[in-house]
Predict the 3D structure of the following.
Amino acid sequence: MTTPHLAKGYRFAGLHCGIRPDPDRRDLALIVSDVPAAAAGVFTQNRVRAAPVRVCQERLPADDARGVVICSGNANACTGPRGLEDARAMTAVAARAIGCRAEQMLVCSTGVIGRHLPMPQIESGILAAVPLLADTSIAFDDVAHAILTTDTRIKTATREIDLDGVAVRLTGVAKGAAMIGPNLATMLAFVFTDAAVSSDDLAVIARRAADQTFNCISVEGHTSTNDTLLLFANGMASSEGKGSELRTQNSELGTQRFAAAVTEVCAELARSIAADAEGATHLITIEVEGLRDDREAYRVAKTIAESALVKTAIYGADPNWGRIVSAAGYAGVAFEEEQLSLWLGDLLLYHAGVPQLFDAASASAYLKREHHIQLRLRFTLGPGRCTFWTCDLTREYVRLNAEYTT
Amino acid sequence: MTTPHLAKGYRFAGLHCGIRPDPDRRDLALIVSDVPAAAAGVFTQNRVRAAPVRVCQERLPADDARGVVICSGNANACTGPRGLEDARAMTAVAARAIGCRAEQMLVCSTGVIGRHLPMPQIESGILAAVPLLADTSIAFDDVAHAILTTDTRIKTATREIDLDGVAVRLTGVAKGAAMIGPNLATMLAFVFTDAAVSSDDLAVIARRAADQTFNCISVEGHTSTNDTLLLFANGMASSEGKGSELRTQNSELGTQRFAAAVTEVCAELARSIAADAEGATHLITIEVEGLRDDREAYRVAKTIAESALVKTAIYGADPNWGRIVSAAGYAGVAFEEEQLSLWLGDLLLYHAGVPQLFDAASASAYLKREHHIQLRLRFTLGPGRCTFWTCDLTREYVRLNAEYTT
């Protein structure tokens, strides 16, 4: 049974191979495109890059990618030359089993840092995954579970659009910025599409989508060593689709619509990550507008999103506009107080530099009632804008990240 | 009774004027130099500057300062034109009472943001403080208490050095980066010396000292609207000291020694602030060495100091080197893993990019046993170094900052 929204020509498998002790937790995923696909990636900016990130960066963008193998429970980060060998071995084992070159496979890992992968279990797991590969929603669901770490729920997003007369599908899946074991937040996201798009176009589209989505979420501002977004396009939507042979020259309008759909899928996944952050009780959307350019708006939004004082205030249902205004003030963006107004939901708290008389009880009630909180800052300096997502900082976050001991 | 270490020619008073509801909490301080003093300041980099910060910035550096009036419990920040009028009025009332021009007095506030000052209580308080002014350790102690907000203890530091044959004293007092009511961290620090130093030299010395001390502490990275360091030098140490008439041309060596003493006093105050941060159970010293320049070392140290993951790990006594290495990795400083080694106390956890086999139990015991934790990162890229102080992130911090409701 093929789910309508799954992109055509991809098969999925997720299973437990033994990285995690709990036999009920899936920890290995394999995704294969039936034909060679264009592929592009966006990766962590951390100077310390995990071995699988380095391997993907060597291989992308590509015109003949066949898929990706992913393990959770171990990040394969800070593992030296052996870590690189292990990451390459994962792609080689998967490639042999499905019948392609190792260089056509990609690899991701997420989990504990600084430990070598249990390669015998992983290699057996990959071999066991191949016969399970299927284009069903159940198999896709297995993948969505297998990549999770401390996430409390799976994160998927799908779209179907018309691209120059062809109905194309985008299938997205991600895992969140939550800790695994004692270690790092690691965001992984994958978007599979049956559209025909060149790898060069994919690379540009992936970068732009990430800038507006995954680069606009923050849990605690700690950039992981493993962050990865991979985008695959195999062209199987078209009846004449034959992998790399197919026409990838879409119209300008078509490409724009496709890029917008990629961004929408990524935004949905990004919001899911912020909403499911460790210990979070609120998803917070921060809209900043009216700065000189988008970059300035981004800096203000990110600084507010990463302020422990703003995040604890929202956790405590305290409409503490002073913390928000002062966080904007140290974002490194020039403004005068008179050029700033601030809303919490529909309530105007601060107008043109002047504190407003507002009903603190109803503001607090809004924070207690709603899971999804809206903050809006309006400056009067230009057209620059940004939407950013974050979560509150709770005692549960501190407990989760303090009480684990190795 | 004059305490040996109090700088000569300063008188102090601290009392309860009524900003705070609790009559046992002092909330107003007045410090007066008997003669006009050179004065300089270093202020918050926040774009949103409280009214007293603006007033001090207008007046400094100065050659004829007579003192400072400080209130706690209300930050006089985000209070518009009336806030500026109130801050100026505080200096005018104090100046009239001690017999100088308003422009010779400085002013600081710390506490709740966005509320107008209760000026009748403050003005009465200033008038009541004048007859209490004394050069005693008891009066100085009253000041040290009157400037506190949620600090749990007073913060003072003193030095006595020889400056070109004259024994000079430095008397420092500060309040910490802790919240007041629902609102902002605000650091205030004051150093009074009876050395004879020009205001231009003082300004340079204050800036350099702040860069190595108060700019090297972080609780949660939220820059306040009120941060202020004021440095006064009245020349009263010398028998011929007569305020602004005196010789302020010290030898180069003498000036260096004086600047070093100022930095020492500031460093002691800064460490006290980090150690007494809200909810903190550990003071953490981060030493970074071997980067291309001090600025790079500063960026790495500050990024680690502000990582919620590093801070929760130390709270949880978890020797989680992966969080520290990965925080260094996103500091925006170029390095390869092979160029970094990391120690926790005396334990080498990570050497030249390779995780070390270390005794996790004894590392955890060190974190549980010691209040003051040492992290040392050594790079192999140059002479740049930085020492930075921070604290752990605890459930008590979250509770304190979440559970207050206005």
In short: The two ends of chain B are 44 Å apart (CA to CA). Chain B has two domains: 10-275, 283-402. The CA atoms of residues 86 and 119 of chain B lie 7 Å apart. Chain B touches chain A through 66 residues (CB under 8 Å).
